[in-house]
Structures are given as structure tokens and as C-alpha cells.
Amino acid sequence: METIEELTGRVRAFAAERDWQPFHTPKNLAMALAGEVGELLAELQWLTPEESARVMADPEHGARVRAEIADVTIYLVRLADVLGVDLLAAAADKLADSAVRYPVERARGSAAKAPRDQPPVT
Amino acid sequence: METIEELTGRVRAFAAERDWQPFHTPKNLAMALAGEVGELLAELQWLTPEESARVMADPEHGARVRAEIADVTIYLVRLADVLGVDLLAAAADKLADSAVRYPVERARGSAAKAPRDQPPVT
Amino acid sequence: METIEELTGRVRAFAAERDWQPFHTPKNLAMALAGEVGELLAELQWLTPEESARVMADPEHGARVRAEIADVTIYLVRLADVLGVDLLAAAADKLADSAVRYPVERARGSAAKAPRDQPPVT
Amino acid sequence: METIEELTGRVRAFAAERDWQPFHTPKNLAMALAGEVGELLAELQWLTPEESARVMADPEHGARVRAEIADVTIYLVRLADVLGVDLLAAAADKLADSAVRYPVERARGSAAKAPRDQPPVT
């Protein structure tokens, strides 16, 4: 569909139309984001990792997971907008940092031995 | 910078180069996402809502907040990729649902009285 | 009412009677705990800190908060039981560590200036 | 060691000695609790459920998990104290409710088929 900038604009308008800006402080939005992530966890908590990999094949459960991910995205986009953070630029910067901190060779070597000490991606 | 599709591709390559795909089940990634959201909360927990609204004005604190938001974004993008969910489409669908559930007139009326019962945005 | 050991025993029996032990791995229980904490956050997210301090005065909202705290407690007790961790002993040990890391004099001095760098209690 | 009431008193004194009470609103403490739960999740996120069941057998990793559980306990106890909630009574009440909502026979029957719809314990 659209771009992340368009989504950001739509969420901003959604909040403005309802006079919700006073509630949308970074602190409150971070809590709301965490609440939505909690709902996402609840959808996956009793599944094995393997079952979780097939969750979208179940139409009903898949729809719930997709809706929770949507809620997380909406609050994340809103929080970034309120803070003036460019989500994609921030993520790109962090990924570049992580590439330095987790060089390919060392990361591959450590994967088998110490999954915990190898925090994938970031 | 780029689009969310480009970021998704970069995060995917990052994981593949390090042989981290086996760890990147939806269940594990949802936990990692929640862990990063926890770090974001920790940056804002002792601030008043008003202080949180000015957090980016402090270069050091602002940089930490930006980095945590970046981590959240990276895991969210990775989770959506692994599940085959289009983040922007899912968010747009959810926003359309929320527009029906929270009609502008009713939402504005309820804002002052019952902030809790008026879950902004979603 | 009772002691934490009695609660632990009751939660254990509750799970056993329903054959839920296979689901109660530490990983799954930590996710469930996080999910319940997310519900607790949702109850407080749009309140100001001051409003949150009065939340128990509203019978309906207070009952919801109490119920979410109960859920968090139940999963925490269950997780500790499954891991063989003595919650009270672990907390006492950590508090002793924190007393060393945050000496009274320095902590008091820093409170006004740097609330973020003064992580209360732990 | 001690009772939960004694731990509550110790955490209260710890905060008071450092003049941290102004920061300890329910809203802030719920965020701190969520932040600590996020750290706990981070310790378990790349483990399989089976590995998570053996995590305490690794002295170093086990110590980290125990410390995170301690932090969660401390903030939970502090939050309950500030709200005037009796944690054990609240948990007992909730467990009684759950016993009604999840009768043993039905819960056992549904466990195999629908792990998601059978939210263990609560």
C-alpha cells in the first residue's frame, strides 16, 4: 500500500480528530506500545517455537496475530512521530552499529555454543 | 532514507549472514521485541509525561531513546517478515477498524471523562 | 491470608489438576508474565502519575488493577516454582546488592538532578 | 527467609532512605516492573522451551535469571505497597475465579487441542 510516512500522517490525523494529543506523550505511548506487545506475546505464549512458525496458517489465530502486530506498529509509528524520530533512519543506523558489534565470522562461530550471548540482529 | 521493504531486506540479510534464522521463530522474535520495548520503558519510567515530551532535547538521553526505538523497529520488521505480514497494510486495516469503533464524535466526548476507556488510536 | 509458599502450592496444584505442566516451561511462563504486565500497563497508560496514585479510589478501575496485579503475581510465583527459585530470598539478595550500588547519600543527591540515572530500588 | 510483608517493609525503607517516593507512583512502578520483565525475557528469548527448563543448571545464566526474577519481585511488591493491594489475597481471589472459569474437566479436555485458548492458571 503506502509508505511509513503516509501511515504516520494517518495515525496523526486519527489522534487529532479525536483530541487525543494530550494523552499521546512519549511516556504514555511507550506504555501503550508495551501493552500491545503484551497482547502479541499472549497469542504466542503456549505455542512451541515450531508451532509459532506455522501460526499464520490458521486463519483465525493468524488474524489475531496480524491485528496485534498492527497495533504495535501503529503505536510505534505514533511514538516516533511525537518524538520526531525517523524510524527507518534510526533502524538503519542501529543496524550499521550492530554489524560492527557482531562481525559475521564471530557471530557465526558463537551461534551454536552460546545462543543467549548472541543477540540476533541488535 | 529508504523504505520499510528495504529495511526488511537488510535485516533479513543481516540474520542470514550470521546463520541466525533458526533462532528467529515468531515466538523468539516476539520475546526479543518485548525485551527491547522493556529497555525503551526503562528510559522513560522516572520521567513525568511532560519531561518525556522533551526527552529528545537532551542529546545523550535522546540518543538512547532513539536507539531503543530502532531496536524495537528492527525486531518488529523482522517478526513481520518471518510471519509474512505486511506491516503497513496490517496497520492500515486496523486503523480503518478503529475508525469504526471510535467514531470521532463519541471519542471526543469521552476523552475528558474517561481517559482509560478511550484507548487512543487502536 | 496465607504465605507465599502456600500460594505457590495452590498454583502448582491448579496447573497439575488441569494437566497444564507441559505448557509451563520457564520460557512460556515468562511470556505469560509479560502478557499480564502488559494488561496492567494498559490500565494505567492514559493516567497521569497523579491519577495513577488515586486509581484504587475508583472501585471499578481499582478492581481491574488489583486483578491484573494478581495475574502477575500468580505467574511470577509459578515461574519461580518451576525454576526452583526462592522469590523472597532472591529479592532480599538483590536488595542487599542494590544497597551497595546505590549508597544512601549518593542516591539522595542524584535524585533531583538525574531521575533517569537513579533507578529506584534496583 | 522472611515473609512477603517483611520484604515489603524493607523495600519501602530502601526507597524512603533515598527519597525516591516521589518517583514511585503506580504508573512509574508499573513501567519499571515491565522493564525488568523485559530483561527476564531477554535471558530466555533464544532458548528453546526445553533449554529454558534447564537454565538454572548453568550457574552463570541461572544467576542472571534469578537476579531478574528478584528485580521483578521487588517492583511488584513495591507497586502493591504503594497501591495498598495485598498481593497474596489478590492472587488467592483470582485463583478462585479462575477455578470457576476453567473447570478441571473442561480444561483437561481442551489442553491438547487448543493450547492458546487454554490460558493456564489465570
UniProtKB/TrEMBL annotation, chains A, B, C, D:
Matches recorded under Pfam families: MazG-like
Domain of life: Bacteria
Protein name: Nucleotide pyrophosphohydrolase
